[in-house]
Design brief:
The complex is a heterodimer of chains A (129) and B (154). Chain A is α/β, with parallel strands linked by helices. Chain A has a single domain, classed as 3-Layer(aba) Sandwich (Rossmann fold), CATH 3.40.50.2300. Chain A has five helices and five strands. In chain A, α3 links the parallel β3 and β4. In chain A, α1 crosses α5 and α2 packs parallel to α3. In chain B, strands 1, 2, 3, 4, 5, 6 and 7 form a seven-stranded antiparallel β-sheet that branches. In chain B, α2 packs across α3. The longest helix of chain B is centred in the middle third of the chain and has 24 residues. Classes of the chains: A alpha/beta (129), B alpha+beta (154).
Chain lengths: 129, 154
């Protein structure tokens, strides 16, 4: 099953590394969308069907936390799995984000195996069959 | 910077950079670093919360392609964009900074990271940074790397 995935990070390095990790983890990708901040991500979500979001926390314009808050307010986060990938996560912040509905949190630096495990766990199916 | 803080930063830097870049770090002394004649690249970011301050990583510009290629898993000769090289250095700093803060203040601390910024340091500026007591020096694949940490409470 192919997933449409949205990567939200102001760093092109991080977006490239997650993309590569998804490929190395043999995650079946349909469309891969990219956004540099939460506001751009909301625009992508308005225009395209997305199955899974990987988002950073610290971003200009709209942070990952603000992005998650918006998805929580609209209820969209109940249907749209969001995984935070960041180095800015403390235990209280991660807990707050989980309370708002994120499905998982990955600390940077990460391995392709971690990405695959999270995709399998969050999407509830094996992503690389 | 206290010796305890310096040791914590060094241990964290080595662990995180090895995982992120697959490059091996080792301790070095300031006397091991010669500013030379080529410019150096700096990425610096501020943070605030339970701990407030700033962290900078400073490397010889010729080390940037190796760092970027190792993070991205690409050949360094494919990386000819200064923006890509600077972005990779910012990302290395970003990851190190988050881990350093949690090491110093504990996993329960709260903090915000400000987006890192790059600038070029001429050799004369590097001499000043080396003289600063808040600067630590490491070797990354035998190339010098400087970390400059300032903490408001330290």
């Amino acid at each position: 099953m192919a997933f449409n995935i949205l990567l939200v990070d102001d760093s092109l390095t991080v977006r490239a590394v997650i993309k590569k990790a998804l490929q190395l983890a043999e995650v079946d990708i349909g469309e891969l969308y990219e956004a540099e901040n939460g506001a751009e991500a909301l625009e992508v979500l308005d225009q395209h069907w997305v199955d899974l979001v990987f988002a950073d926390i610290s971003m200009p314009v709209m942070t990952g936390e603000e992005f998650v808050e918006r998805l929580h307010e609209t209820g969209a986060i109940e249907e749209l799995p969001v995984v935070i990938v960041s180095s800015a996560g403390s235990e209280p912040r991660i807990q707050r984000l989980k309370d708002l509905g994120i499905r998982d949190y990955i600390h940077k630096p990460f391995t392709p195996e971690q990405i695959r495990e999270v995709v399998d766990s969050v999407m509830g199916v094996s992503s690389h069959d | 910077m206290t010796d305890q803080t310096r040791d914590a930063v060094e241990t964290t830097f080595m662990e995180v950079v090895e995982k992120l870049t697959f490059m091996f770090g080792e301790h070095a002394e300031k006397a091991d670093v010669a500013p030379g004649t080529e410019p150096w690249a700096e990425a610096r970011m501020a943070f605030s919360g339970d701990v407030t301050g700033s962290l900078a990583v400073i490397v010889p510009q010729q080390l940037q392609p190796e760092i970027a290629s190792n993070i991205l898993g690409l050949d360094s000769d494919m990386l000819d964009s200064a923006e890509v090289l600077d972005d990779a250095l910012r990302e290395m700093l970003n990851v190190v900074c988050g881990h350093v803060i949690r090491t110093l203040a504990g996993p329960g601390c709260t903090f915000d990271l400000v987006t890192p910024e790059n600038r070029v340091l001429e050799p004369a500026e590097l001499t000043k940074v080396l003289e600063d007591a808040d600067t630590s020096v490491y070797l990354l694949d035998d190339e010098p790397v400087l970390m400059h940490l300032t903490l408001e409470r330290d």
